[in-house]
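Design job #97: recover the sequence.
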């Protein structure tokens, strides 16, 4: 394999240049297939499985780390997946031209503005909503405005500039799903990787990642992905993780491949040979930018 220079990262993650990518030709000639079906993939895929937990087996010597009942980790492991081998689509129904995925989350096509940060925010917010953790449903917009679900339940909405709350008899109230969906639409429109990084996250240990941690390069645009499962080898202590992402243009949320280690895909390693996490499509996130939601 060709040797790729390790990029130097600035002291402040906020100023990291997200444009650095690895030329796929430098990753070697044997790529992980760009998508399933399983017979073309590896023996870690069970095509009968319909969740993260049941679709992907663990490599020999590894075990899944424990996840408490009702935890965010358990929620992520039980995310429903589309049938094995399904193609990846953009928001408008067109096929993705860069489908480096191992599986697709089973859900409706995203809206035009549901991109990478929205995928991560949406999964986390749905976990909170599904578990009646309404008081934790609050996200800060890019302009600093704090948008909490409680205001929506009481008939308030941000104004057009997202600087103050307004109310109207036309606004639906209560805790039902339609109110929650309106709340998420506002968050998707006014939050992004920069606001997520600055307000909602705290540092995590890159050598001991947890389910639900995120890898983020904030910016305009930036990018963020989420760890949706973690395994550990009890003999060697090695830790591996699985990641999911959305992207820009808006694409179906999907489980990401490990292009450097086809036999281990989709389990990623924690060696960070390039100074950070390198995705199958050449996106690089410095290891210092592995973060965790503050309210987990």
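Job complete. Output follows.
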């Amino acid at each position: 394999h060709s040797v790729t220079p390790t990029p130097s990262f600035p002291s402040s993650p906020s100023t990291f240049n997200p444009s650095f990518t690895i030329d796929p030709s430098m990753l070697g000639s044997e790529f992980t297939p760009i998508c399933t079906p399983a017979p073309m993939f590896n023996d870690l895929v069970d095509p009968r499985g319909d969740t993260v937990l049941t679709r992907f087996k663990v490599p020999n010597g590894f075990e899944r780390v424990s996840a408490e009942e009702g935890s965010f980790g358990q929620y992520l492991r039980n995310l429903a997946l589309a049938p094995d081998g399904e193609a990846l689509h953009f928001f408008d129904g067109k096929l993705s031209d860069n489908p480096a995925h191992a599986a697709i989350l089973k859900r409706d096509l995203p809206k035009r503005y549901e991109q990478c940060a929205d995928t991560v925010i949406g999964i986390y917010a749905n976990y909170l909503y599904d578990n009646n953790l309404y008081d934790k449903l609050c996200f800060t917009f890019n302009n600093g405005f704090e948008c909490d679900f409680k205001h929506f339940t009481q008939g308030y909405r941000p104004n057009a500039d997202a600087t103050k709350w307004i109310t109207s008899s036309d606004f639906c109230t209560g805790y039902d799903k339609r109110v929650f969906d309106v709340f998420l639409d506002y968050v998707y429109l006014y939050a992004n990787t920069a606001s997520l990084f600055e307000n909602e996250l705290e540092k995590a240990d890159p050598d001991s990642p947890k389910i639900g941690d995120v890898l983020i390069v904030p910016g305009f645009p930036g990018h963020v992905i989420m760890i949706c499962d973690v395994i550990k080898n009890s003999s060697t202590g090695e830790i591996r993780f699985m990641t999911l992402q959305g992207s820009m243009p808006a694409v179906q949320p999907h489980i990401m491949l490990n292009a450097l280690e086809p036999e281990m895909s989709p389990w990623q390693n924690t060696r960070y040979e390039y100074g950070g996490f390198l995705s199958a499509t050449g996106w690089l996130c410095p290891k210092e930018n592995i973060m965790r939601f503050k309210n987990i």
